[in-house]
Amino acid sequence: MISTLIVGFGFSATTFHLPFLNYLPQFSVDVVISSKPDVVKALLPEAEVYSSLEEALKIHDVDLVVITTPNHLHGPQAKLALEHSCHVLVEKPFTLDSEEAEALVALANGQNKQLCVYQNRRFDGDFLTIKKLIDDGVIGEIKRLESRFDRFRPVPRDRWRENEGPGSGIFWDLGPHLIDQALQLFGNPKAVSANIMTLRENGQSNDTFDITLHYGDKVIKLGSSAFQAGATLRYDLQGTKGSFRKFYLDPQENHLRAGLSFDDASWAITSNKEHGVLTVASESGELLEETIETRKGEYLTFFNRLAHAIEDGKFSPADASTVVPVIKVIELAIQASEQKQTLSFN
């Protein structure tokens, strides 16, 4: 079994990681770093609890360290874990600096250890659906994609993600997901423009963003708003043969929040009313609409692949080397927003 240590035991750990680590027989959660041992013991009575990652790594020989702490701690904690010869799964963004990201990748390679980033949205059912539509050429040559992750949170909350500080704000929270999906589909852009804003009253960090990735032959628009009270436009994919529009978010997060069993027939299944609509032109020029069933989400696949990667060094679900360009786009977008310019991606 893969002896696992979790750093942090808040929402991310208990909702997005622990259910999978407990469900899959490959993993054993043996150590947790938390300031709330009673909370840990209620869910993991056999786990050892420490307040310091450095202390725990001196005592325990674990295989995998899962990092779910605030964003500014990801890089230093991943480095510490790798230096102790552990595989690492780190929440996105895995660093706040691309030079640090490249250094961590080099360290992981030197240690012959997996450094995996929790880019779980690569395994959203709706993303897998548009990827297949693109790969199958159903929409023709892609010319435009709008990808959004909107919410209705008009009043700031007192938590580190929304307070002032390094790595806080919605752009560092959701930007890594949207950018990573775009780069998975189309590779690195030629240029980036962005508008990153704080629109909520008394907001301490950014809560709204719109980014454009320029490719020359296509344009990709990514964004998030804290003021969308209706159905979220998740994807608007347009090409030379037609278009595809999909509303609503992937259901896996809500299923995890609700504690839905992975063995439940409805796990990761999108409801019929939330499927997307494909519109293509017939040979006569008539526009034909078709509801496209959303593929089943595969967060379980993410953790299965992680286990295989640790065991045989192959098939990482999100190797950190593939995520370094995401950090570079984030850095460039912040600079482009501040300068109100379109900047080249090198």
What does this structure look like?
By secondary structure, the chain is an alpha/beta fold. α4 runs parallel beside α5 and α7 crosses α10. Helix content is 34%, strand content 24%. A 9-stranded mixed sheet has the order 14-13-12-11-7-10-9-8-15. Strands 3-2-1-4-5-6 form a 6-stranded parallel sheet, sandwiched between helices.
Concise structural overview:
By secondary structure, the protein is of the alpha/beta class. It has ten helices and 15 strands.
Q: Level of helix content?
A: 25-40%
Q: Which structural category fits the helices and strands? A: alpha/beta
Distance linking N and C termini:
42 Å
| H-E string | EHEHEHEHEHEHEHEEEEEHEEHHE
Number of helices: 10
Q: Please, what is the average pLDDT?
A: 96
Strand tally: 15
Task: Going across the biggest sheet, name each strand in turn.
Answer: 14-13-12-11-7-10-9-8-15
Secondary-structure blueprint of this entry?
Elements: E1 2-7, H1 11-23, E2 27-33, H2 37-43, E3 48-50, H3 53-59, E4 64-67, H4 71-83, E5 87-91, H5 98-111, E6 115-118, H6 125-135, E7 142-148, H7 170-186, E8 191-197, E9 208-214, E10 219-224, E11 233-239, E12 242-247, H8 252-257, E13 276-281, E14 287-292, H9 299-312, H10 324-339, E15 343-344
Parallel strand pairs: 1-2, 1-4, 2-3, 4-5, 5-6, 7-10
Antiparallel strand pairs: 7-11, 8-9, 8-15, 9-10, 11-12, 12-13, 13-14
Structural key phrases:
alpha/beta, 10 helices, globular, 346 residues
